[in-house]
Amino acid sequence: MQRYREVHDFLHTLTGLPTSVFGEVVAKWFEMLQTGLPMCALSSFFGPLQMTMSEQMQLLRVGVPWAVQASTEAQFFMNVYYERHFEESLDSLRGRIGLQLPRLQ
Q1: Residues sharing a CB contact under 8 Å with residue 23, sequence separation 6 or more, in sequence order
Q2: What is the largest CA-CA distance in the chain?
């Protein structure tokens, strides 16, 4: 759990997901699919209740499909030693771990 808490903000930085409710829910979908952690599942399923209808539609049309694809293609995010890559560009690190950016509107 400690490593999960340590790297969560790196996930936001690498994906460009905002720290809004919408961005958190999309991140939780990615994390749930990679880790299977129950707290991520709860946030993924109940977080949208705090979102507007348009955000919920964007989540279903863009956020969840991206999370499904990205979570299966990318390296397991908790095993990346982000601390060793501070001098590397974000694009380079994304390429190294196989992470595609979400196409959010």
Answers
A1: 12, 17
A2: 40
Say how far apart CA 95 and CA 79 lie, in whole Å. 15
Q: Which residue has the tokens 């955000």?
A: 55
Neighbours of 59 (CB within 10 A): 22
- Helix runs in 1-105, H state only: 2-15, 21-35, 38-46, 53-58, 64-73, 90-97
Q: How far apart are CA 72 and CA 29, in angstroms?
A: 12
**Tens digit of pLDDT per residue, the chain (105 long)?**
888 888 888 899 999 999 999 999 999 999 999 999 999 999 999 999 999 999 999 999 999 999 999 999 999 999 899 889 999 999 999 999 999 999 876
Q: Under a CB-based contact definition with an 8 Å cutoff, are residues 51 and 25 in contact?
A: yes
Q: Which amino acid is at 64?
A: V
The answer to whether the beta carbons of residues 17 and 102 sit under 8 Å apart is yes
